[in-house]
Amino acid sequence: MNIYLDNASTTFPKPKAVADSIYNFLTKIGGNPGRANHDNALETNRLLIEARETIANFFNFDKIENIIFTSNITSSINILINGILKNGDHVITSSMEHNSVIRPLYRLKENHIIELDIVSANNFGFISPKDIENKIKENTKLVILNHASNVFGSIQPIQEVGKLCKKHNIFFIIDSAQSAGVLSIDFKTLNLSALAFTGHKSLFGPQGIGGFIINDDLNSICSPYTLGGTGSLSYSLTQPDFLPDKFEAGTLNMPGICGLLEGIKFINNEGINTIYEKNFYLRSHLLEELHNINNVILYDDINKADSYTSCLSLNVKDMDTSELSYILDNDYNIKNRSGLHCAPLAHKTVGTYPSGTVRLSISYFNTLEEINYVINSINNIIKLK
């Protein structure tokens, strides 16, 4: 048996329609949207509009021109952070963030451009909205948080934080890398200013495609990060100031956009609640059985089972994390990830720094048979230790 449980890094396998759509685009269409009037370019433009419409509907947003495509969620977050923040601004984030948020913020702090407060989560990886509110100052411009931890799966109280940001007139951005495609996300209900997304995780798209949704208020003060050709206003030496061209300089990754479009169609056809319920069932079963194995160390709050996505972290007492990961992969063909998972502050928060954890992350394509095999494998490893 060969089991893939590294879906928090990138999902595998993808729906067949995703690969088919990429192949179809590369072999039958292949045009460049907005750059010509021939059939290939016009068909590409039609697909691009369909992708924007599908993403807008998926996240409950009204204006398709505010759907911006980038190469990945890291690019999206960098565009937003560097386009919004100015000298003297104050930002609030959390200790559960991925380095895609922490590193650009930390550089701005080190260069004395912004003030930065990093709110600590509790031992299970959950932040408190009250702690966020206690950090708000007169110059607080932005709160940016991940929706769910890429290490422990803890889902943050985003709706409550969104209400706080609206109350205090602060921009609010979420990193949806671990939640989009797993949890239902409503841009309006959450009072978001922007939402950054990536294609290759639970949206079932290919690698190399991502983007963000930005509302008009945030767009009005956000500067473009990359300048160049857009296919529009070619006579002008300055970047267009209208969306999406303002943020989409250069040729778009249309094969990736086609794949992402089909990934979201797959989710819509299956039903996001169906996907969540299956993931929840498999994760709950895995967690319950691991709790019954001596010397397995888990980092979940058993009283908040419904407050996690489909990944979990574990260690085995008196066993090196990397060794456990290697044995799972080499001896049992269980694909996993070990280490700090690009989120060192999260590990410091929960107490797993510097060795990190072994992360097992479930997909809709995993089965109960596979999860039982994982449970038995971990039990065997401990018995043979």
TrEMBL record:
Domain Aminotransferase class V: 3-373
Substrates-to-products reaction catalysed: (sulfur carrier)-H + L-cysteine = (sulfur carrier)-SH + L-alanine
Domain of life: Bacteria
Entry EC number(s): 2.8.1.7
Cofactor: pyridoxal 5'-phosphate
Keyword set includes Cell membrane: no
GO MF annotations in UniProt: cysteine desulfurase activity
Primary enzyme class: transferase
Key words of the record: Pyridoxal phosphate
NCBIfam families, alphabetized: am_tr_V_EF2568
Family stated for the protein in its record: Belongs to the class-V pyridoxal-phosphate-dependent aminotransferase family. Csd subfamily.
Protein name: cysteine desulfurase
Native source organism of the sequence: Clostridium isatidis
